[in-house]
Amino acid sequence: MSESTSAAPLSRHPVVTAIVGFCAGLVIAYGIGLWQRSSALSAQADASAAVVAAKDAEIAAAHAVAAASARAARGADSRTALVQARLGLFQALNDLDQRNFGVASERLREAAARFDTVDADALGLDPALLGALQAEIAGTPVLVATDFEQQRLRLLELAARLEAQTAAALAAAAAVPGGSGALPAPEH
Is the pLDDT of residue 85 over 60? Predict the structure, then answer.
C-alpha cells in the first residue's frame, strides 16, 4: 500500500489528471495561437510596408511630374511674354512710321512691362542681359520729330536684340527632350 501512494499520487485522481491535462493543452494551444498571430501580423506588416513604399514612389514621381510641368509652364509663359514684347516693339515701329508718336511711346512702355513676367532661368537666358534690354526699351524716348529715322533705327536695333533672345529661348525649349518644352509623358 505504501507503494501505491507514493508512486502515482495523480493516478488515484483521474479527474485532477484530466483537468491538469486540459489546462496544459489550453496553454499549448494558446501559445501556438500567439505564434501564428504574430507570424500573420508580421507578414501583413511587411505587405503594408511594401504598399506604402510603392505609394511613396508614386507620390515622388507625381511631384517630379508636377515640378516639370511647373517649369514647362513658366518657360512657356516666359517665351510668350518675350514674343509679346517683340510684337509691341514692332507695333511701336509701325506707329512711329505712321507718326503716332504718343501711341508708339505707349507701346514701348507696354513692351518693357512684358519683361516683368519673364523667368530668365526657366528660359536659360541671362537675367542681367534681359534686364538691360528691358531698361533700354523702357528708356527709349519717342519724340515728335520731322526726321525720325534715328528713332526708327533704334527701335529696329532693339527689336533685333529681342529677336535674338526669343530665338535663343525657343532653341533652348526645342532642345528639351520632347521638343518645344513639352511635358514628360505620365507613367502608368
Answer: yes
Rounded to 5°, the CA angle 78-80-184 comes to 70
Taking CA atoms, 109 is separated from 24, 106, 130, 138, 181, in Å, by 95, 5, 15, 6, 29
E strand spans, the chain = none
> Count of residues for the chain?
188
List the single range of 98-107, 132-141, 148-157, 164-173 with lowest mean pLDDT: 164-173
Which pTM value belongs to this model? 0.62
The predicted structure's pLDDT at residue 49: 92
Contact 78, 115 (CB under 8 A): no
Distance (Å, rounded) from C-alpha 176 to C-alpha 83? Answer: 19
DSSP letter at 183?
Answer: P
Q: Where are the domains of the chain?
A: 60-175
Q: Which of residues 7 and 153 earns the better pLDDT score?
A: 153
Q: Is 3 a residue whose pLDDT tops 80?
A: no
Task: Calculate Rg over the CA atoms of the chain.
Answer: 41
